[in-house]
Amino acid sequence: MSRLDVRKTYKLYIGGSFPRSESGHTYEVLDTEGRFLANAAKASRKDGRDAVGAARKAFGGWSARTPYNRGQILYRVAEMIEGRHDQFTSDVVSAEGLSTQQASKVVDAAVDRWVWYAGWADKLAQVTGNANQVAGPYFNLSSPEPTGVVVAVAPQDDSLLGLVSVLAPVIVSGNTAVVVTSYARPLPAVTLSEVLATSDVPGGVVNILTADAADVAPWLAGHLDVNGLDLTGVDDASLATDLEAEAAVNLKRVVRPSRPDWAAEPSLSRMTAFLETKTVWHPVGV
Questions:
Q1: How many whole angstroms separate alpha carbon 155 and alpha carbon 228?
Q2: Contact yes or no for 227/59 (Cβ under 8 A)
Q3: What tens digit of pLDDT does each residue of 56-106 get?
Q4: How do residues 120-167 score in pLDDT, each as one tens digit?
Q5: Which domains, and CATH codes, for the chain?
Q6: Residue 229 in contact with residue 247, Cβ under 8 Å?
Q7: What's this model's pTM, rounded to 2 decimal places?
Q8: How far is residue 113's CA from residue 19's CA, in Å, rounded to a whole number?
Q9: Phi and psi dihedrals of 154, rounded to 5?
């Protein structure tokens, strides 16, 4: 007997929950051949504000955790992606039109990328901080601290490895994130949100909006409770310029749009982009 086609409608991921868009709007997600895959919630300005609020609420607890514990939590995410390897492979096949073998390698690379960043969690301070030499009877110590709430526009074409490569470095150092997914290829991000919801990542540390960046990014860029902006996935040069101007209102840190080779070895630059350096002077005891 034939069965009815059970068509999915995916929701947003905000504060550890899966709400529908407050606008009630959805859009069709199609594969590379133009065939229907699912419906996705279309995030609104209000959803963006809710996501920023959730990220701000989670920031205090997440940034206060030990780096070692954050590393453990990121490693657990990698374990869970590995456990759902087949599902992620299927999502990447549908989203990017790759063969199953090619998509499987992308998922492998995404898992490896999570593990790489997880390993840096308790080493970052030693590499980016230091004891400074000063003339005088003082200790002068510099140490890195997270910037705060970071909004990241994920790459539009590389729906999984690119997403992981902009998200993991933001949260490993203690920041919290609001991610605007690839508009045409959101399914790997939706599946990742399901992994995050059932892992050890506290609600609000990562918030995922399926939306057109042109619709929601201007409101997020101008939000005064956002401290950093990653424009990697913004393909429209005019939009990127407008977003940078909005970000300047409260001096947000900004990573400019780019199209890096995501398969290349990662570097520290994406972690240090959203770190502040605190320097403490202390007199040497007599």
A1: 17
A2: no
A3: 999 999 999 999 999 999 999 999 999 999 999 999 999 999 999 999 999
A4: 999 999 999 888 888 888 888 889 999 999 999 999 999 999 999 999
A5: 26-283 (3.40.605.10)
A6: yes
A7: 0.93
A8: 29
A9: -70, 155
